[in-house]
Design goal:
Layout (H helix, E strand, L loop, with lengths): L9 H9 L7 E8 L4 E5 L2 E7 L1 H6 L12 E7 H4 E7 L5 E5 L7 E6 L3 E7 L6 H12 L4 E7 L7 H11 L5 E3 L9 H4 L7 E5 L6 H9 L2 H12 L11 E3 L5 E3 L2 H5 L2 H11 L1 H7 L16 H7 L5 H46 L1
Parallel strand pairs: 3-5, 8-9, 8-11, 9-10, 11-13
Antiparallel strand pairs: 1-2, 1-4, 2-3, 4-5, 6-7, 12-13
The structure holds guanosine-5'-diphosphate and zinc ion.
The site of zinc ion has 8 residues, from α12.
Length: about 350
């Protein structure tokens, strides 16, 4: 594999030359970020890498550490399977997730993406306001966007939906497809050229995995099988989060990227259940959970037949999911932050011992 197929180009070449690269300092791309190491791909295959001591001395925040999609300059060691990361090359584009609850530190969840497919379901998932929020988010990233209206087989008003979306989509092309029914994938494939990096965002259940699996053919299964064998006992996902497609082009699919959707969803909850939020303003207690508290206006409405109990259950269930994800996001943010500190400490300590 040559590095152009991995997404290398003049932008990175210039930065690399500026760094004064040499024979033993070569470029590699991050395919996975684990707690204590990175997986990389380079011209001659894959590498497991760690950042150098000097790197962590100078890195001041989590965003200065490499993430999936980043290009780094490495020194390959030990029969060419391991490497030390010396420099992170500037990013062409990046997706930032606010590290909820932890100061204002931004987390980069994917870097150097050329095209983002925003996957929207033409079934009950369809929501123009959500599309608008994604548009804002992606426009900030530096990547181009394509809106994919999936599940066309479940929609009788495809033409109307396309028109509605085109009214708000700006320059972003809009394509319609059915990931499960279409034999022809050329609509989406024509955006995926060799050396171009794509990623998929959108609510859960819209068809992202189905699309990725179809793009990958049998590759992903293959990758999964081999790495499961190698990494028994690891409980993280077993495949690379950046994968080169058999037909050329690169796909990034990370949990962080998928979680980007959740920014939208607490607001969605309030919008979708405006009636309940309104009723809740009449509850005696500000933090009323509408279970059996005295003076609960929501329970009263159910008793009066003005609100369906099922609807309240659904509201509660969705709220729970969102809070759970928020909690996980916060935990992960803290983890990431500590991780940065630990690397720092580790290298300081190591230096003391060695010198
Ligand atoms: P993800 O959460 O975005 O990764 O969504 P998945 O790819 O897991 O898809 C969720 C469900 O929708 C699965 O049961 C898929 O088989 C189904 N699905 C995906 N695309 C289509 C489609 O075009 N039409 C229909 N009818 N179902 C689809
Ligand atoms: Zn209440």
């Amino acid at each position: 594999m040559n590095i152009t197929q991995l997404g290398w180009g003049t932008f990175f070449q210039q930065e690399y030359e500026g760094f004064g690269g040499g024979q033993d300092l070569i470029p590699a791309r991050v395919t996975r970020q684990d707690k204590n190491s990175y997986e990389l791909l380079y011209e001659r295959g894959s590498l497991t890498a760690q950042v150098s001591g000097a790197f962590s001395y100078t890195a001041e925040s989590a965003s200065e550490y490499p993430t999936v999609g980043d290009w780094v300059i490495v020194n390959v060691i030990e029969d060419e399977k391991k490497a030390i990361i010396h420099k992170l090359l500037p990013r062409k584009s990046s997706f930032t997730r606010k590290a909820a609850g932890v100061e204002t530190e931004a987390q980069i969840v994917a870097a150097n993406v050329d095209i983002v497919f925003m996957v929207v379901g033409l079934d009950r998932n369809f929501n123009l306001r959500r599309i608008e929020r994604y548009l804002t988010l992606i426009n900030k990233s530096g990547a181009k966007m394509v809106i994919v209206l999936n599940k066309s087989d479940l929609c009788d008003e495809t033409e109307e939906r396309i028109e509605e979306v085109e009214n708000i989509s700006g320059d972003a092309p809009v394509i319609t497809m059915s990931a499960t029914c279409d034999d022809d994938f050329s609509q989406i494939e024509r955006y995926i050229e060799e050396g171009k990096t794509v990623t998929l965002v959108g609510s859960s259940g819209t068809g992202k995995s189905t699309i990725i699996n179809r793009l990958l053919g049998e590759e992903r299964l293959l990758v999964k099988q081999t790495s499961e064998h190698v990494s028994q006992g690891r409980n993280t996902t077993t495949w690379g989060e950046l994968v080169v497609l058999p037909s050329g082009g690169i796909v990034i699919d990370t949990p962080g990227m998928r979680e980007i959707q959740l920014w939208a969803d607490d607001e969605d909850l309030a919008n979708a259940f405006g009636d309940i939020e309104e009723l809740a303003e009449g509850c005696r207690f500000r933090d009323c959970e509408h279970l059996a508290e005295p003076g609960c206006a929501v329970q009263q409405a159910i008793e009066d037949g003005k609100l369906e109990d099922k609807r309240l259950q659904n509201y509660r269930k969705m709220g729970k999911e969102i809070r759970f994800m928020e909690k996980r996001k916060r935990e992960r943010a803290i983890l990431d932050k500590n991780f940065g500190k630990q690397i720092h400490k580790f290298h300081k300590h190591k230096k003391k011992v060695i010198f």
